[in-house]
Write a structure and sequence with these properties.
Blueprint (H helix, E strand, L loop, with lengths): L3 E4 L5 H12 L3 E6 L2 H9 L3 E4 L5 H15 L5 E4 L14 H29 L2 E6 L12 H20 L5 E8 L6 H12 L8 H12 L3 H6 L4 H12 L6 E4 L1 H12 L2 H13 L1
Helix pairs in contact: 1-9, 3-4, 4-5, 6-7
Length: 278
Amino acid sequence: MQKSILITGCSSGIGLCAAKTLHQRGYRVFASARKPADVEKLAALGLESLQLNVDDSHSIQQGLQFVLDKTGGTLDALFSNAGYAVPGAVEDLTRDMMRTQFETNVFGPMELINLVLPVMRKQGHGRIIQNTSILGVITMPNRGNYNASKFALEAFTSTLRQELRCTNINVSIIAPGPIETQFRATAYKGYQEKLLKKDSVHQATYKKMAEHFTSPSKTEKSLTLTPDAVVKKLIHALESQSPRARYYVSFPAHLFAFLRRILPDRGLDWIINKLLDE
């Protein structure tokens, strides 16, 4: 029987790769995006596409109802992938900047998952896979807003896994390191809109950070994987009889997760700052 999956954030990168790969694998893929133009592009690829903006409760409810109407009220899996980054030092973050980041990266995914859970409970099974980041395990300077949102998402998802331990609903986290997506371009746009003209003691750091967004180092390029590396982990989380609680993707993600376990905070801070200073 064909399995159904709803994927958020399919306009590009990981979400788009996941939608196309799973469609080819025989899944009934409901690929969602925020912008109508992206929804049309997804439809042109032969995907069942829909508009779903995780910042908007009505859009979330309407999008999920669209899927349930198509499937007769069932949904086998959810890949919660939508998210983006707002860069900036903590002391330069406004409440509005933090609220906007959390709406997309935390509150939207939480609301969607909570709406999907009754459907999966009723049908007696389901898979929920949350895409987070290695920056939900460690932190890096000038990414405090993004770090905080991913830490919150990790905590929410891990708690959910614990609460569903006696059900047939499996919950997994995918925590990627550097992946070839629009992430850097979006972060750079955020820098231009929020930080470029800001009177801040961190301007010199921001300029260096902006250069990193537009021209990553040779080392970082060599360690950056394509989105299909994430999709391989997603397939395991969807199809394994015993899916893992957490999947790390890329060497840096595995390395920093290991260092987080063995090093004191000051030691890990030194390594991270040393890498960023290169």
